[in-house]
Write a structure and sequence with these properties.
alpha/beta; about 20% strand; binds NADP nicotinamide-adenine-dinucleotide phosphate; phosphopantetheine; NADP
């Protein structure tokens, strides 16, 4: 017969178009078949295995479709002798060459040697190592550094034939049988088979003798019995190699509590030993296995740790190793007929993206070769083919195995998001004509838990001093656990891997949820802190939402610079800066705006990419815990945000001194701020920012709009019951308008309705808590004793609760206690000044150790600007007061602290800047 030849387009070498017999099976053989057809060869016949349980092998399916002669011999030989009819049928196909891409049958030598060009076979090891079946298993079991495959001239089945081609790759630390096959053996093997046939067709195929040294012949490793871990007396690597060498088939296993448990997804655990975990006894292992949020830790005899990602139970059920012992918690989903259709569509989408015909429950989207472009395609295809089901890229990253992905999709299609589920022991109240519900336990790693010590304390409603509920009181051990989880989330979790834009999306979602729950949040804030409901709605909660939205917008705008520097001639240099998150941060907040203080700091901290452990003030923990519930609903990965309720002296101090926290953000008193700074320095020299107390001067000139000045000054002092860090602690009024100002102020304050903070008409609610209330009474007493005149209020109201009449002191001189110390309550302190002596009032306004805020009322803009330039305060208000905005930096001078909240500046508090300098050679390219 005349030979058909053509020229290879890449190397221009002529090759013969061959008649090829394919003896093999599976998708691997299918791909080889397609490649050979693409090169113009003819498939003379396909010899594959009989159908298994009615399932036709993919190679048979393809041959049938193409009308290629197809044979499904059960066996080729009997008692070592080729079966004549089989041989005869084979001969009829008249092949030039046999290709054995993946052949599980014994092929007689009559067949191997029959074609004029003989036979080539694919073997998944670097021969002469690991001859025999289960070669990939053995490559891993033996801890080989390199894996690969050989294409050799087929022999009598002992894998000793001459080599035609070999390809190798490095074994990655966490490779298992599946990953090696999928990333290398399969794709490269198909290419190599095609190349091998081409070399044969061009008459250039080598035959290289296999060396004798290094040869091994390994036993078949398929049966479950051989994969048992019979002894734990192994080194870390031996244990890891054993488990991954059996992964996925036959699966290394041992008995736990009398049940067979098979281990998958082994990796050497180099991270710190998990703190938050459950212990599981395994007979013979050095110490109990640890079930933690990321898997199960097994111990080797050298003290090393192996982490297992998933487990198969004796029942055949696959679970995440992190769920071992709690399998019942993840309710099994029963799919409806419609949902079954969705699952089939999802499988089809995965198959087409991953270009495979087999998608198992444990097939991992990324480990099977998908990249970030595929995530977009997956999201779009699901939307297109599953009735508009809209996933986020996050949903894909959160469930990377097919089983998890299906679960997430079905839950989402049912209207709920998996991330939506948050379980806790709720406090339910009917208050403010609504049902409110909030957690009362510590929030660690997205779970609500009791303190390790089991301690709790009561939080009190200042309106009537009744107990609202009991709150978990964290201890130092809880701090360690929370910091550990935050560290894991930062270094190893999704948070650290996600793009800044995805981070922003989570923050926006959280802000949306806060908005959805704003009435509930404001109600909780009101009963816990005494904040007037309407103010809580607008400011406490409203500005918290604004802060999250504002900083969400910053996430993807955090960028460095390129900086021209002197070149080290003849070379050239380039410097650039990168702004990086700091890592695990601690935040300690006060009680006056409980949620808002949390939001101001935490939003910038998260936008910068950090993870956080926050301690709210002991007396006002509730909105922080309600916020934590929304964090889970928004889909934040575990450990990113942790909230510990408890005492400052204990938990605040433990955070401040913690060696794994590198930044501490604090808002509170100057006294505690000093202690915090000392502790930050002494522990690990952690960075800190301190937003501390104030005694802010407000200067009212005679040329002001007096109506406006009175209204604004009233707000400057009495806003939020005076529990306002920028409250105007001292009012300087020009002597020419002093008396009129005081009279008008008394009238203005008299209009304020004092009472139930939930009443929409109330302007002034109860003070925050008893200790503070008592301090205010003391403050008033000192003022009067020193000779200041109490011209209005200052008495406890004759009713239940911590209600204090707003107070006005006049005749206050600069040396008085009330002129120098912050009250943090509804106490106005008025002093006169000489309208003609601007320099003197500036001097008096600045004569304080505080420097948080200040204000000026005058119609003379030149005077206002002159004074604004000279006031030593972080904020100066002109003809207004309390006008804060999330976009404007906020923070004090002098003993009011340092470091800003809000505005772009706040971001820098939570970032570190790295400078990278590169040197490169100049090249003499001719232009
Ligand atoms: P604080 O007594 O300083 O307490 C603030 C926070 O620090 C609380 O969570 C407290 O825990 C904790 N804490 C106490 N001792 C600690 C320690 N040794 N180590 C670490 N943390 C510790 O202040 P506050 O009475 O809650 O708040 C009032 C003060 O905050 C006022 O001076 C006010 O001006 C200032 N403030 C300033 C700003 C600003 O932006 N500049 C804003 C609001 C408030 P406990 O819960 O156990 O007390």
């Amino acid at each position: 017969m005349e030979k058909l030849t053509t020229v290879h387009p890449l190397n221009n070498i002529a090759y013969e178009k061959l008649r090829v017999a394919i003896i093999g099976q599976s998708i691997f053989a299918v791909e080889v078949y397609k490649a050979l057809v693409a090169d113009g060869h003819t498939i003379a016949g396909v010899f594959t295995i009989p159908d298994k349980n009615g399932k036709v092998d993919p190679l048979a399916q393809l041959a049938e479709k193409d009308g290629v002669p197809l044979f499904k011999f059960k066996a080729w030989r009997q008692k070592g002798v080729a079966i004549p009819e089989v041989v005869e049928q084979y001969r009829q196909t008249k092949p030039d060459l046999n290709i054995l891409p993946y052949c599980s049958q014994f092929i007689p030598m009559d067949i191997i040697e029959h074609p004029r060009l003989h036979s080539i076979i694919y073997h998944p090891s670097l021969l002469p190592r690991h001859r025999g079946a289960s070669a990939i298993n053995w490559t891993l079991l033996c801890g080989d550094k390199k894996a690969g495959f050989s294409i050799f001239w087929a022999d009598d089945g002992l894998d000793t034939g001459d080599i035609l081609m070999m390809r190798e790759c490095f074994v990655k630390p966490d490779d298992n049988v599946d990953s090696l096959y999928n990333r290398f053996m399969f794709p490269e093997g198909i290419k190599a088979m095609r190349e091998s046939v081409m070399l044969i067709a061009q008459g250039r195929a080598p035959r290289i003798k296999q060396p004798k040294e290094g040869a091994t012949y390994d036993a078949m490793f398929q049966k479950k019995a051989v994969a048992e871990i019979t002894s734990w007396d192994k080194s870390t690597l031996e244990l890891h190699n054993w488990i991954r060498g059996c992964d996925h088939n036959p699966g290394a296993w041992c008995k736990i509590n009398g049940q067979m448990v098979t281990f998958y997804g082994s990796s050497v655990w180099r991270r710190a030993r998990p703190i938050k975990c459950r212990k599981v006894e395994i007979a013979g292992m050095k110490e109990p296995a640890l079930v933690h949020s990321d898997g199960m830790i097994l111990f080797a005899n050298d003290g090393g740790m192996i982490n297992i990602r998933s487990l198969e139970l004796e029942t055949g059920k696959m679970i995440k190793a992190s769920k071992f012992g709690q399998e019942e918690e993840e309710e099994e989903l029963i799919f409806t007929a419609d949902e079954e259709t969705i699952v089939e569509s999802l499988k089809g989408i995965w198959k087409s993206i991953l270009q495979t015909d087999t998608i198992e429950d444990e097939t991992d989207f990324f480990k099977s070769g998908a990249g970030s472009m595929d995530v977009t395609r997956l999201v779009e295809e699901v939307k297109d083919k599953c009735g508009g089901l809209t996933l986020t890229t996050e949903d894909v990253y959160m469930g990377t195995t097919f089983q998890e992905f299906v679960r997430n999709c079905i839950l989402k299609s049912r209207g709920g998001d998996t991330s939506d589920e948050v379980k806790y022991d709720p406090v339910n109240l009917r208050v403010n004509n609504m049902d409110v519900c909030f957690p009362h336990q510590l929030f660690i790693n997205n779970e609500f838990v009791d303190s390790v010590s089991g301690r709790a304390y009561a939080t009190i409603n200042p309106s009537d001093e009744s107990v609202i509920c009991s709150i978990a009181k964290a201890s130092k051990e809880d701090v360690d656990v929370a910091v550990h989880c935050a560290g894991e989330a930062f270094s190893h979790g999704e948070w650290g891997k996600m793009s800044a834009r995805d981070r922003a999306r989570l923050m926006y979602k959280l802000a949306d949820l806060m908005e959805e729950h704003k009435e509930e949040l404001a109600t909780i804030e009101s009963i816990d802190s005494g904040a007037v409901y309407t103010l809580a709605l607008k400011t406490h909660i409203g500005m918290s939402i604004d802060a999250f939205r504002y900083f969400a917008g910053w996430c993807d705008k955090i960028q460095g610079q390129t900086i021209p520097i002197s070149h080290a001639r003849p070379n050239r240099n380039l410097s650039y800066t990168v702004k990086e998150p700091i890592g695990v941060c601690g935040i300690v907040t006060p009680w006056n705006y409980p949620l808002m203080m949390l939001a101001w700091k935490m939003s910038a901290c998260l936008a910068a990419g950090n993870t956080v452990v926050l301690k709210p003030a002991q007396v006002t923990p509730l909105t922080a815990l309600k916020f934590a519930e929304l964090v889970v609903k928004a889909g934040f990965p575990p450990g990113v945000i942790n909230i510990l309720t408890g005492s400052g002296a204990e938990i605040g101090a433990a955070l401040t001194g913690h060696p794994d926290i590198r930044k501490l953000g604090f808002t509170g008193s100057t006294e505690v701020g000093q202690e915090i700074m000392r502790c930050c320095a002494m522990s690990n020299l952690k960075k800190c920012s301190l937003e501390l107390g104030g005694k802010s001067p407000l200067i009212i000139f005679a040329d002001c709009d007096l109506d406006r000045a009175v209204k604004q000054a009233s707000g400057a002092v009495f806003f939020n019951k005076g529990e306002n860090c920028i409250a105007a602690g001292r009012i300087f009024v020009a002597d020419s308008i002093h008396d009129e100002f005081v009279n008008r102020m008394i009238a203005e304050v008299g209009k304020m309705k004092i009472g139930d903070p939930l009443d929409r008409a109330t302007a002034h609610g109860p003070q925050n808590h008893k200790a503070h209330f008592d301090k205010l009474l003391e403050y008033l007493e000192i003022g009067e004793k020193e000779g200041a005149t109490l011209v209005y209020g200052g008495k406890r109201l004759d009713r239940k609760g911590l209600f204090l009449e707003p107070a006005i002191f006049t005749d206050v001189t600069d040396s008085m206690y009330v002129a120098q110390e912050e009250s943090f309550g509804p106490i106005m302190v008025i002093s006169k000044f000489d309208d003609m002596d601007v320099a003197d009032v500036i001097h008096r306004a600045n004569r304080t150790e505080f420097g948080l805020a200040s204000g000026i009322f005058t119609k003379d803009i030149n005077k206002a600007m002159h004074i604004a330039d000279r006031l030593e305060a972080g904020t100066v208000f002109v003809n207004t007061y309390n006008k804060t905005d999330v976009a404007v930096p906020f923070g004090g001078f002098k003993q009011s602290g340092f470091g800003k909240d809000l505005g772009e500046e706040a971001l820098h508090e939570w970032l570190k800047i790295k400078a990278v300098t590169v040197e490169y050679e100049t090249c003499d390219f001719d232009y």
